[in-house]
Amino acid sequence: MSKEEIPTGTTAASGLRPLLIGPSSGPEPPYPYRMSGPVISGFGRGSKELGIPTANLPVDNSLTPWISSIPSGVYFGWASLLLPPSHPNYSPASNTSWSMFPMVMSIGYNPFYKNDTRSAEVHVLHEFQADFYGTDMRLLIMGYIRDEKDYKGLDDLVEDITFDCRVARQSLSRPGWRVKELGDGGQFEGGWLVEQEEEKASL
Ligand code: ADP
Ligand code: RBF
Ligand code: MG
């Protein structure tokens, strides 16, 4: 085997990781972090074909100063989307135009692909019938799952991401982590995720 053929990455460690992150009471400081912006085009690597499309957000150090110092890695939390009425999944709750979903995201350089810019990409835990490029997205980042890793192969990356999705769903299903605004007994104050632009301006 020549030097180039020796795999440098790691294998998936999904089975060895806990399914629940943080205490049942809810996120602890410095969480939650807020981030928002329009969904932009990503690296076009065909994440969608892998079954894990990621909605990319601009990384803007002036809007989210914490983003330059937050460790690179995989995070989870809630995503809110302002889908247009023409989108097949448009079905906002009665008192808001936003739709809320659990999410997992990666912030960093994707060591498996060795990016040279820091990206923020969100896999929304919901099946969409159409793309939503350009749509405004708000994120409430509730906690940290793991470090970003390099992998031996794409299968290991996908296996770990699949497990990240389970971790996010399980962790967010506890009352202390569910947002009140979903009206299902959640205790976490997540009003910012669904607040209208006008209300924000008058605050
Ligand atoms: P890109 O490289 O442009 O980010 P992807 O293959 O990662 O392309 O696909 C991302 C796009 O797929 C998002 O911008 C969004 O419009 C769409 N999409 C559909 N379903 C989802 C989902 N569950 N989570 C994130 N994005 C999704
Ligand atoms: N890329 C990496 O190089 N290493 C990772 O550990 C990694 N973890 C990810 C976890 C999640 C939840 C998501 C959504 C993406 C992750 N990525 C990671 C980014 C991934 O390489 C990118 O979305 C690709 O476009 C998938 O093909
Ligand atoms: Mg993407």
Q: What is the count of β-strands?
A: 6
Mean pLDDT, to the nearest integer, reads 92
What general form does the structure show? globular
Largest sheet: number of strands, sense, barrel closure: 6 strands, antiparallel
Ligands (ions, cofactors included): adenosine-5'-diphosphate, riboflavin, magnesium ion
Name the structural class: alpha+beta
In terms of DSSP E residues, the strand content is 15-25%
In whole angstroms, the N-to-C terminal distance is 64 Å
Q: Tell me the radius of gyration.
A: 17 Å
What sequence of helices (H) and strands (E) makes up the elements? Answer: EEEEEEHH
Helicity level, as a percent range?
10-25%
Widest sheet: strand ordering: 1-6-3-4-5-2
Summed up, the helix count is 2
Q: Spans of 5+ residues with little confidence (pLDDT < 50)? A: none
Q: Can you give a write-up of this model?
A:
There is one protein chain. The mean pLDDT is 92. The chain is globular, with a radius of gyration of 17 Å. The protein has helices at residues 154-172, 197-202, and strands spanning 33-38, 55-57, 73-81, 99-108, 119-124, 136-146. It is 12% helix and 22% strand. Strands 1-6-3-4-5-2 form a 6-stranded antiparallel β-sheet, with helices on one face. It is α+β, with helices and mostly antiparallel strands and 203 residues long. It binds adenosine-5'-diphosphate, riboflavin and magnesium ion. Residues 42, 47, 54, 56, 121 line the site of magnesium ion (MG).
